[in-house]
Specification:
The chain has about 280 residues and is of the alpha+beta class.
């Protein structure tokens, strides 16, 4: 049976990293569809995995990799027993630790060593030899606190504004973000591309669909028709189209349990009251 457990990072990291998680799949084969999500760092402790991006790109997971923000579902497949330690990266964490333009790594992944240096080897070794969750969390905290100490401070005003915009309304308005920023629409778009990996318009669509999936997964909406009645989508065809683009399936398929890991993560994250609101969506 697939299992996933979540843990909070050290206090100085919580504005940068949404959570740590330990994922286990017994094998011999694992395959599931992950919804569009925030950037992820994954350490493959055991097993071999492939990421099939919606763009058609297929990448083999190395020992440690960074996956950029995704604008569509990703098919994650593995052979053999799979053990993964994962880290959710918040927008401020991307701006502080990664610093590279997010749109250049959107819907793709790269070796973590190229970004964080040789210290990654100590993280990989620490997770491979850890025998309990506390030891894994301690190894991750050491690595990320060290990475933070080597990083320049990033301005947080835009991520604070944009995070609140994406989670404050079920259907975020781009005009509202531009007005609140006090900048031109073009300047806001450049910042969003650099830190979030997509334009404000695409982000608004993405988080509207992700929020709808969370409502369905948590039972907050009794069915897809309620999402239309609430004015989030024009009609059934619009809902299905947006759901397919960002979740990878229809609402009916989602409700029938087609995305086991996505539904499991939605349920588990509800148990973390201090989790940043943006991370509840992806």
């Amino acid at each position: 049976m697939v299992s996933i457990r979540y843990f909070a990072p050290a206090a100085p990291l919580r504005a940068l990293l949404s959570s740590y998680y330990w994922f286990e799949a017994p094998g011999p084969v694992f395959s599931d569809l992950m919804r569009a999500e925030l950037p992820q760092i994954r350490i493959i402790v055991e097993g071999r995995a492939l990421n099939h991006f919606a763009t058609g790109i297929v990448r083999a997971s190395g020992a440690a990799h960074l996956q950029g923000p995704t604008s569509g579902p990703v098919r994650f497949t593995a052979s053999g027993r799979l053990l993964v330690f994962g880290i959710g990266v918040l927008p401020l964490g991307w701006a502080t630790l990664v610093a590279a333009p997010a749109d250049q790594l959107a819907d793709d992944m790269v070796d973590l060593r190229g970004l964080a240096g040789a210290e990654v080897d100590a993280l990989v070794d620490g997770l491979a030899t850890a025998r309990c969750d506390a030891a894994r969390v301690a190894a991750a905290d050491r690595f990320f606190l060290g990475w933070l100490a080597r990083s320049a401070t990033a301005p947080c005003w835009f991520t604070g504004l944009a995070d609140a915009w994406l989670t404050g309304a079920a259907a975020p308005s781009v005009d509202a973000l531009v007005a609140a920023s006090g900048m031109s629409a073009r300047s806001v778009e450049r910042l969003a591309q650099r830190v979030y990996g997509a334009s404000p318009r695409l982000l608004a669509r993405k988080y509207r669909a992700l929020g709808a999936a969370v409502r369905l997964g948590n039972g907050e909406a009794e069915g897809w028709a309620e999402l239309i009645d609430d004015g989030l989508f024009y009609d059934q065809a619009h809902l299905i189209r947006e759901f397919r683009q960002f979740i990878g399936m229809t609402p009916a398929q989602f409700l029938s349990g087609a995305a086991a890991v996505t539904r499991l993560t939605i349920a588990r994250k509800r148990l973390m009251p201090d989790l940043p609101k943006l991370a509840l969506f992806s």
